[in-house]
Design brief:
The protein is of the alpha/beta class. It contains seven helices and five strands, in the order βααβαβαβααβα. α4 links the parallel β3 and β4.
């Protein structure tokens, strides 16, 4: 599509942390598969991300699970990270800040993925993003083009009404940040 911008390949990796920690159950459920070492995992991801890049796409990784090794993903060649902000730990924030500083993309999942009891406002979400950037020491004007605000995870469990509102909130926050 002419003028559409770069092609992104999103790789969903919600179980990556579990793979590293040997928490993936066997088919019988009586055992666990072996842990995959970080260098081995990195090698396989490097191959995948290199193939995407050689094909003209930017490889992004999405995971809304806690314990996702964001540093490993960046080191293997992911050029964008999509995360659920509610499950991040301190080290994750550092990796995301480094990614933004390096010119890579970050999709920060802040909007509830399912119908919330009380919906956040676009201003509340905007303030949350600006506070996050401030804590990281990043200028919104500098990194704004590489930062997306998204639902925390997929909208498959959301009502159609909330899915529409969630996406509208993402657009409103983006407009507030520009």
């Amino acid at each position: 599509m002419p003028g559409a911008g770069p092609l992104l390949l999103q790789v969903d990796e919600p179980a990556l942390g579990a793979v590293l920690r040997a928490e993936v159950p066997t088919a019988s459920g009586f055992g666990r598969h072996r842990a995959v070492d970080r260098p081995e995992l990195s090698e396989h991801l490097e191959w995948l991300f290199a193939a995407a890049t050689e094909s003209g796409a930017q490889p992004w990784v999405h995971s809304c699970a806690a314990g996702t090794p964001l540093d490993l993903l960046r080191g293997a060649g992911a050029r964008g990270l999509s995360v659920d902000a509610s499950v991040l730990v301190s080290a994750d924030h550092d990796v995301l800040g480094e990614a933004l500083e390096a010119g890579e993309g970050v999709a920060l999942g802040l909007v509830p993925a399912v119908d919330p009891a009380t919906a956040p406002t676009a201003q509340q979400l905007t303030d949350q993003v600006l506070g996050w950037l401030d804590r990281l020491g990043l200028d919104p004007d500098v990194v704004g083009q590489r930062l997306l605000v998204t639902p925390a995870c997929g909208l498959a469990g959301a009502s159609p009404e909330w899915a529409r509102r969630a996406l509208a909130l993402c657009r409103e926050v983006a407009a507030n940040l520009t």
